Amino acid sequence: MSTKRTGHTNSSERILGIPVSLLSLNTLTDKALLALDTAGAPFTVAFANPHSIVVSRRDEVFRRALESASVVAPDGTGIVIASALHGRGIRKRITGFDFFEGFSRILNERGGRRCFFLGSSRKTLDRLQVRFEKLYPSITFAGSYSPPYREKFSKEETAAMVAAVNAAKADVLWISLTAPKQEKWMHLNAASMDVKVIGAIGAVFDYFAGNIRRPGKLWRACGLEWFPRLLQEPRRLWRRNFVSSLHFMYLTTMERNRRHAGYRQSFPEREIDLPESPFALLGRMEEETARQRLNDSMTREDRKESLLTKDNF
């Protein structure tokens, strides 16, 4: 059994209190590859979008799950916008599919690794296995497990899931239980599993198996990948795309305003000496010249008066 990981292993910035990664996809992949040959707790990867961050504000276990993950990648255009709004460094989103695909491609090139898949239906897992073994023949498909479809698993069900993962002797565990259930399950059970890397990747199983068609590159490049997905699954996604996203932007805007207000209060207003304008300088010179002429004139009159006084005596 591995010891529990504490803290984040990567550079991150706080988005409404959640530490979201500043790593590029390549750097994230490199860290996951390094973890395969490193002793210790599993390297855990979660993906945050505006909906998940809003949910984490009222779900304490989910919040702790995100805070304890090795990396929380910025999956969502709203995260990038929020970072820019605060003048910070997240410039590009990283989706679960991007990480899964890129990491699997490198594992296949190197060979000798084993992957286990937890979540989704048996039909989806079977279809996923066929495609995975075809695309990545150098990776061993170590097994899969389709848990009961319910909001919360019993202790017995959780124990069976952990036992299946450990029996497979996998290096990598991919979890698809939907958020926030998958992140909480990963957080509560990572220390009990003998794997090196765990990725909570949401709907990636359905995409990879072909159950859901992933939006094209143009949609993704424009940050509008959510729109075709909404059209495919309106009943499941309308709330997160409208209610949660608007709530998220409201919260980040209010946080920005509070930060700016606090910054202004920490520096009290004071008068600043500005450079004198050319027009003011010319006016001051004219006044000085007129004053000097007046003084000269008064001096001449004083001299005349003094001479007259001497003549009288």
Q: What's the gyration radius in Å?
A: 33 Å
What is the overall pLDDT average? 81
Strand order of the largest sheet: 4-3-8-7-5-6
Give the termini distance in whole angstroms: 122 Å
Supply the CATH architecture: 3-Layer(aba) Sandwich
By secondary-structure content and strand pairing, the structural class works out as alpha/beta
Q: Can you tell me the number of structural domains?
A: 1
Give the overall silhouette: globular
CATH topology: Rossmann fold
CATH first level: which class?
A: Alpha Beta
The main pleated sheet reads as:
6 strands, parallel
H and E order = EEHEHHEHHEHEHEHEHHHHH
Unreliable stretches (pLDDT < 50, length at least 5) are 1-7, 267-284, 306-313
Share of helix among residues?
40-55%
Portion of residues in beta strands equals 5-15%
- Helical element count? 13
The count of DSSP E runs of length 2 or more, i.e. the number of strands, is 8
Walkthrough of the structure:
The structure is a single chain. The chain is of the alpha/beta class and 313 residues long. It is built from 13 helices and eight strands. The protein has one domain (12-257): Rossmann fold, CATH 3.40.50. 55% of the residues lie in helices and 12% in strands. The strands form two sheets. It has a six-stranded parallel beta sheet, sandwiched between helices. A two-stranded antiparallel ribbon has the order 1-2. The longest helix has 35 residues, at 278-312. The model is unreliable at 1-7, 267-284 and 306-313 (pLDDT under 50).
